[in-house]
Amino acid sequence: MQRGVLELALVASLAGPAAAQPSSQPAIPAKWLIHDASDRCVATHEYRVDGQDWIVGLEPKPTSDQTSLFLLAPSGGSDLRQAHVRIGDVPVASGMQLDVNDPSGRRLYKVSLTNAELARLSANGALQIDDQGHTTSFVLANVGGVQQHLAGCVQTLLSNWGLPADKQPTVATFPAMDRDATSYIRPQDRTGVRIRPGMNATATVVLQVQSTGEARDCVVIHSTGDAYLDSRTCKIFVEGARYRPARDRAGQPIRAPLVASMTWGQP
Fold this sequence. Notes:
The protein is α+β, with helices and mostly antiparallel strands. The protein has four helices and 18 strands. It has helices at 3-12, 115-124, 143-160, 227-240, and strands at residues 32-36, 41-49, 52-60, 67-73, 84-87, 90-91, 97-101, 107-113, 126-131, 134-139, 171-173, 176-177, 202-209, 215-222, 243-244, 246-248, 253-254, 256-263. A six-stranded antiparallel β-sheet has the order 1-2-3-4-8-7, with helices on both faces. The protein has a four-stranded antiparallel β-sheet with strand order 6-5-9-10. A hairpin with a 5-residue loop joins strand 13 (202-209) and strand 14. It is globular, with a radius of gyration of 19 Å.
């Protein structure tokens, strides 16, 4: 599936009537849509709450132990960055972040889920968004089945990124950057950088991190739309950033891919 179609399911479906505050009544579950793309694996779930359209999405991070939970909220509502996310009445540790702010007024938010939080969501399917006293509840059906499909998609991605399927079970931990990616951006790196309104300010790449911790072969899999920013991102990740290598089950350092993102500004 081409990225344009994938993003249509999450972002470009931003047209729609203005929405009121989130309803306290649970949404009625619809069918999951699975999007297997060349750079990511995403499952989306559409809801209609009191005549307003919501989309909930799950996206596993192939070289980490986290999964992103996406929420495409109706236009006209409040900013949900201060909202509290709960799974089965238990708060999620990570806070809500604004991922895309569309001119139509709809916003795409994301929150990182740990494996334990994802397991809890799979077990009970109950997701609540608490916003200034208003609670919007979603019942996510068959999360376990969706996880299995996404796991197969991730296996294919890792194989395409140089980690064969038969080697993947031997990886105990994937490579990791030694600190936050944006901390490697120097003032001179921002020279000539202009973040235009509506521009995607985040570049996502795949790096091959050697057993020595050296990064090579930077490939952009999600562009900012600006060739200069994409090039600067790869240069920083290869020449400036430092990494902890992946390790196998015996604790030995090994070569493995790493998906990394660099955000140059706010959406």
